[in-house]
UniProtKB/TrEMBL annotation:
<dbReference type="InterPro" id="IPR006121">
    <property type="entry name" value="HMA_dom"/>
</dbReference>
<feature type="domain" description="HMA">
    <location>
        <begin position="1"/>
        <end position="62"/>
    </location>
</feature>
<protein>
    <submittedName>
        <fullName>Copper chaperone</fullName>
    </submittedName>
</protein>
<dbReference type="Pfam" id="PF00403">
    <property type="entry name" value="HMA"/>
</dbReference>
<dbReference type="GO" id="GO:0046872">
    <property type="term" value="F:metal ion binding"/>
</dbReference>
<dbReference type="InterPro" id="IPR036163">
    <property type="entry name" value="HMA_dom_sf"/>
</dbReference>
Length: 64
């Protein structure tokens, strides 16, 4: 799935986003693109679960 995260603007943000996603699914495959403010995730977690954990981390996300 692909998520858009307006608040992800740098590498540090991308690391925080990655850690948040891994807290839900440690085996998730994650590809962040801070310049485009997008994240591609291959995961068994639901979109709702990812959006909830990202919101809690301060990076609200929408699905693309």
């Amino acid at each position: 799935m692909e998520l858009r995260i307006e608040g992800m603007t740098c590498g540090g943000c991308a690391q925080s986003v990655t850690k948040a996603i891994q807290s839900v699914d440690p085996d998730a495959r994650i590809e962040t693109n801070p310049a485009a403010r997008t994240v591609r995730v291959e995961t068994t977690a639901t979109s709702a679960a990812l959006q909830r954990v990202l919101e809690e981390a301060g990076y609200p996300a929408t699905t693309n």
